[in-house]
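Duplicate of #3305? Posting structure anyway:
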């Protein structure tokens, strides 16, 4: 008996000791968790029960100058549910049926499913589900809000507006250029999840309100944009050209009213097109201007009193030799006045005028007109063109530049240069933004004309406008003339560079026109790349496009502002719009002069690496594909900070191009 009691006592002591030890360990552990290391476990608890939900900012809208939306956000909702968390399934099914116009049985069947997660609706338009807010706090119901950018004009504004990606971030065009203003700043709220997985929003938890993006009113006119697109597309189709581009501006304040590239692409379906199709050639494609550049020589000669419009120039025998090269006229002229030289686009007469004016003045006025420098437009991917340094100018370079060879320009540069002629001599900065407003309609920016410099006196520009009026009335630009409208302008036809030499069958046809000639209000530049058919000159294929654009604008605009002044007199008709471009021929002998005075030209346009630094990856790849380089190695992310081969070095399509990118934050971010 004693042994039995002793055994019980020992067991009791052992069990009691174990219980006390276990209790002490438990108390110690609780003390450690709740007192000593409480912060750690509090954070773990919060991480499991508190979630941060992002509140997307509303992206700003792009409007045309009259307030018509050029881009809109389409909002859709996808509705899902965790059936086991929904208390009153019948009531929820009834409410959804009423709001979405469906049958209650459809939703009730889905909610009674034994699945843990089911979709009730996918991609419901905002118009069908405007009462979505009342469902946001329903336990077990999940509402996924998606925003997709939509462009009402589609291809008409393709390269101009660009598009946004799946995250609603701008990829190219104005959507990319103004990303910092349009995107806004996302906000967030903290929600708490209970043991059943239900989310509860509490006002005492941290939160941050979203800041919506700004709305931007562009200077673009939707009607003008449509007209320019339709007429340019018509010319592109008829001439079977490689591409075409055009721009319409107000020459008095630099406002861009329309900007079009053909072929275009539909911003609503960008994946259907190549990356190179996204390029806005008006600001990023450079080309030899040909005869439209003769206005530089004309301005320099008139401003410096070297020539007057009635001064006679001997253009015999229809060609001129400069160094070891011969440059011909499209037709044999004898004695022409300087006005007739411009009207008939005589190469010989223009070169002689440039020689009388001097290399320094021609170079100076080319720079004054803004060539060789960016216009600083608020648009990504602008190119500055090519204007060779003055210390490399020879007599041959002077002759070439005088007639628009050996220099490369953009259509945008050309429009602003001619705007200086149209407005009386002031070079303007192009404007594409009219106003910027917050979502509360608070105006934070209102554009004003930005004058860069005076190119020449008002008197000189008046004389030049008269000469350009003669060009349209009875010269090479007659196909742009409209009865009753005093249109002035200049034609240009430049040989393209093909396989490193000037082609005898591939051309860039251009025309710049403005009206009314005595007080211009609208200016249009049309460039058609390599038109095919009977006509391939600027006067033959580009001038008619300007005529049709102006005609349609006048017909649809009752408020177009014509002066009461009589139009400039119209000289006798003398069709010359079929004129061929200048052709440079090289003697067979290898003259020492050729080595002493090497020709500077823009053959390098297709044979040099472009400047890619500062461009996004998409922009850089598009440019490289455009010049035939497909072997591209990419290092990093962001914008291009270095490239190999270096800019302006010879291009070898088989060579690998390495791009190094780094992230960069802009002041707008």
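Output from current build:
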């Amino acid at each position: 008996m004693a042994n039995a009691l002793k055994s019980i006592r020992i067991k009791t002591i052992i069990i009691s000791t174990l219980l006390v030890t276990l209790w002490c360990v438990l108390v110690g552990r609780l003390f450690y968790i709740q007192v000593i290391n409480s912060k750690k476990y509090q954070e773990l608890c919060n991480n499991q029960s508190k979630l941060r939900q992002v509140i997307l900012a509303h992206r700003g809208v792009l409007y045309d100058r009259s307030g018509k939306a050029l881009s809109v956000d389409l909002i859709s909702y996808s509705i899902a549910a965790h059936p086991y968390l929904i208390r009153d399934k019948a009531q929820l099914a009834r409410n959804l049926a009423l709001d979405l116009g469906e049958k209650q049985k459809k939703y009730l069947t889905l909610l009674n499913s034994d699945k843990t997660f089911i979709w009730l609706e996918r991609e419901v338009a905002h118009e069908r589900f405007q009462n979505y807010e009342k469902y946001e706090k329903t336990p077990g119901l999940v509402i996924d809000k998606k925003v997709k950018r939509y462009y009402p004009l589609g291809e008409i504004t393709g390269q101009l507006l660009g598009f946004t990606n799946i995250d609603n971030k701008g990829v190219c065009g104005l959507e990319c250029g103004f990303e910092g203003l349009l995107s806004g700043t996302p906000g967030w709220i903290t929600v708490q999840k209970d043991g059943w997985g239900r989310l509860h929003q509490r006002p005492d938890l941290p939160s941050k309100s979203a800041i919506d993006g700004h709305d931007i009113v562009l200077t673009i006119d939707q009607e003008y944009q449509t007209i320019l697109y339709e007429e340019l597309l018509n010319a592109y189709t008829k001439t079977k050209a490689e591409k075409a581009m055009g721009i319409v501006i107000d020459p008095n304040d630099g406002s861009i009213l329309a900007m079009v590239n053909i072929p275009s692409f539909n911003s609503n379906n960008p994946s259907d097109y190549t990356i190179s199709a996204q390029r806005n050639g008006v600001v990023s494609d450079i080309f030899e201007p040909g005869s439209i550049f003769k206005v530089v020589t004309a301005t320099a000669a008139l401003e410096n009193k070297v020539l007057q419009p009635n001064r006679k120039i001997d253009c015999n025998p229809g060609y001129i030799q400069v160094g070891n090269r011969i440059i011909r006229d499209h037709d044999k002229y004898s004695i022409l006045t300087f006005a007739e030289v411009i009207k008939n686009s005589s190469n010989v007469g223009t070169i002689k005028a440039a020689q009388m004016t001097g290399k320094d003045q021609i170079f100076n006025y080319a720079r004054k007109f803004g060539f060789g420098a960016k216009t600083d437009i608020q648009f990504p991917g602008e190119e500055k063109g090519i204007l060779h340094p003055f210390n490399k100018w020879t007599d041959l370079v002077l002759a070439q530049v005088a007639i628009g060879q050996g220099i490369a320009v953009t259509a945008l540069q050309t429009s602003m240069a001619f705007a200086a002629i149209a407005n009386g001599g002031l070079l303007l900065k192009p404007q594409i933004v009219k106003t910027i407003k917050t979502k509360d309609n608070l105006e934070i920016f209102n554009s004003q004309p930005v004058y860069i410099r005076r190119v020449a006196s008002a008197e000189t520009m008046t004389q030049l406008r008269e000469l350009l009026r003669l060009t349209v009335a009875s010269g090479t630009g007659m196909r742009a003339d409209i009865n009753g409208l005093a249109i002035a302008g200049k034609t240009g036809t430049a040989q393209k560079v093909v396989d490193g030499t000037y082609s005898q069958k591939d051309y860039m046809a251009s025309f710049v026109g403005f009206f009314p000639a005595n007080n211009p209000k609208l200016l249009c530049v049309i460039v058609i790349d390599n038109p095919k058919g009977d006509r391939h000159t600027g006067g033959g294929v580009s001038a008619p496009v300007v005529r049709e654009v102006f005609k349609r604008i006048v017909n649809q605009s009752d408020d177009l502002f014509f002066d009461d002044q009589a139009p400039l007199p119209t000289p006798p008709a003398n069709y010359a719009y079929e004129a061929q471009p200048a052709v440079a021929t090289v003697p067979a002998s290898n003259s020492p002069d050729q080595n002493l005075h090497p020709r500077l030209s823009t053959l390098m346009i297709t044979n040099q690496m472009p400047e890619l630094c500062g461009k996004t990856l998409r922009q850089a790849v598009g440019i490289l594909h455009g010049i035939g380089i497909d072997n591209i190695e990419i290092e990093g992310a962001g914008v291009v900070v270095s490239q190999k081969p270096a800019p302006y070095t010879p291009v070898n399509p088989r060579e690998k191009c390495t791009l190094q990118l780094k992230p960069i934050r802009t002041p707008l971010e």
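Confirmed duplicate; merging threads. The chain is about 30% helix and 25% strand. The chain has a mean pLDDT of 83.
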